[in-house]
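Researcher: Structure prediction, please.
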Amino acid sequence: MNLAAFVVQLLITSQVHRFMGIGVALAVLPVAMAGGTAAVLLAGAFAPAFLLSAALSLKVAENGIRYSIDQSTRELLFLPVPSATRRRAKATIDVFIQRFGKGVAAFLLLPVFLGWMPAIQAGWLSFILIAVWLVVTGRMRDEYVRSFRDGLRAVTVDPRVPVDVSDATSLLVLVQSLDSDDANQVLRSLDLIDHHEKGELVPLLLLSHPDARVRRRALQVAVWAGRPDVVGRIEPCLASPTTTSMCAWKRCGRSPGCAAVTPLQ
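Model: Predicted structure follows.
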């Protein structure tokens, strides 16, 4: 199980996040458990000699995915949550919710313990719970996107949070937020993109944004990312003395991420 978790975390987790997003990543574990449960039921009914192998495969897949891609994805879900709330929520989930879930699972297995149902047939109960699980993961993905977007608007998403924003879902929200009518939301998105060194995502149209703060921050992020394509946008500004102070900027000389810049003379 440890080896499976290590291999999945090393080779698969980042790829799923980068190309498929949180929604798919959340569904990997329940889908794997559904496949393993089906294998156990089929082996029990038609090939008893393979029953132990099927059960072993189910257990290895469950724990291998739970402690790799599933755990990493659940950590991503905390990104839009303010820091103070995040600490309380994680403590509540770890201490109470997980233990409550295990207690409910033990209660549901009482028919097996009392001999009213063969252990293999409990797989049908697993299918029902997995179906509910998949519905919940879909709702979680939608809530994550909504919370992330609201957090960027309300300035509750901390750009310093050490979460991999190369996740496809997070990147989609960030790019969409750059097109927002709310300048503050655009600025928060630029801060997050800059902190995680994703300056290649900044569209050059932001250099013509009606809000000067957005133009300035977008230029900073694009230049610090080494984008040569911004030069063509700056040269027309330099050609006109009346627009130099508005369009041409230089870095303030302090730490990266500093929003204070001065016009070129």
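Model: The beta strands are 249-250, 262-263.
Researcher: Thanks, that helps.
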